[in-house]
Design a protein that fits this description.
The protein is an alpha/beta fold and 325 residues long. Helix content is 45%, strand content 14%. An 8-stranded parallel sheet has the order 1-9-8-6-5-4-3-2. Strands 7-11-10 form a 3-stranded antiparallel sheet.
């Protein structure tokens, strides 16, 4: 069985899996590894470090990769878009904010535009603009997100997408999740947590080990780490991370954190530099239960595709039995 979906045709890839552009984690080496294994790797443009971005593009070598940006942050540093488009990425992904001011420039560069959405209103805006692909992100995802769960959200977006490929995101870390995404009408999956602890990931070794031993039960959504990092995220989105001492102290006391913010930001920055994960953030999603073995991105992707093919074969057999009955 071969899984060839409209997403594969759109990006010229073998497997319908994209690497989530995790800020500070999805660098050029990881993006290249996913692309070279048959998916599409996206560098995480993050909050706008031009030197870092160019270094990671260089690290990707000749691999066919894309790049993703936090839209509201890109609006403050639009020259980053110029730098990225000059590298001829296969695709450019925008998340969290109004993508429309960048639409003309991206189209002029003949780069495919992926827009990530968390509500049906956002999805309709993307459809009306004629974007090339839509990521329907469920709240199970690590990092920033909204409030809709993946299972009901993805088919709702598919229903209004008018043929635009829909990419499922949030809680998908193995072949079972990929098969489910396709069963929901999606054309593929955007995966972050499953690649977080990959050999090629830029996450620290301590953070990788925390992810490998963590569980979705140990995650929560809050704004405490954004406050600690001094990031003025719009209130529509908050951040899923593993719980730790810092979240237990402050996620239920935002007022108290605000009153002690200068001191706590210093504490957070010191801990992050020292790799102290009692305070520093480990940004993974509910799919943390499904990653237990450190391995290359290629091994992760191959296992995902093999398992997805197996699951889809099983589904075909179920349909066969129904016909016989």
């Amino acid at each position: 069985m071969s899984m060839r979906t409209p997403l594969c045709d759109l990006f010229g890839i073998e497997h319908p899996v994209l690497l989530a552009p995790m800020a500070g984690v999805s660098g050029g080496v990881l993006a290249a590894a996913v692309s070279n294994a048959g998916g599409l790797g996206l560098i995480g443009g993050g909050y706008g470090d031009a030197d870092w971005l160019m270094r990671e593009f260089n690290a990707a070598g000749e691999a066919r990769i894309g790049v993703g940006f936090i839209t509201w942050s890109l609006a403050r540093q639009p020259r980053l878009l110029d730098l990225a488009l000059a590298r001829n990425p296969v695709a450019l992904m925008l998340s969290f904010g109004d993508f429309k001011p960048f639409l003309h420039q991206i189209r002029a560069a003949q780069t495919k535009l992926i827009v990530q959405v968390q509500t049906l209103e956002q999805a309709r805006e993307a459809v009306d603009a004629g974007v090339d692909a839509i990521v329907a992100q469920g709240t199970e995802a690590g990092g920033h997100g909204g409030t809709r769960a993946t299972l009901p959200f993805v088919p709702a977006v598919v229903d209004i997408a008018q043929g635009i490929p829909v990419i499922a995101a949030g809680g998908i870390a193995d072949g079972r999740g990929l098969a489910a995404a396709l069963a929901l009408g999606g054309s593929g999956a955007l995966c972050g947590t499953t690649f977080f602890a990959s050999d090629e990931s830029l996450a620290s070794e301590g953070a990788k080990q925390a992810a490998l031993s963590g569980s979705g039960d140990d995650t929560e959504r809050s704004s405490v780490f954004d406050m600690a990092r001094g990031l003025d995220w719009p209130s529509d989105w908050n951040l899923r991370t593993l719980r730790n001492t810092f979240t237990r102290q402050w996620s239920g006391d935002i007022v108290g954190l605000r009153e002690n913010l200068a001191q706590e930001q210093t504490r957070f920055n010191t801990a992050s530099a020292a790799g102290d994960l009692d305070v520093a953030a480990v940004i993974v999603g509910e799919a943390a239960d499904l990653i237990r073995t450190p391995q290359t991105a290629q091994a992760t992707l191959r296992a995902m595709i093999s398992q997805a093919e197996d699951r889809l074969r099983c589904l075909c057999r179920y349909v066969g039995h129904l016909k016989e009955d």
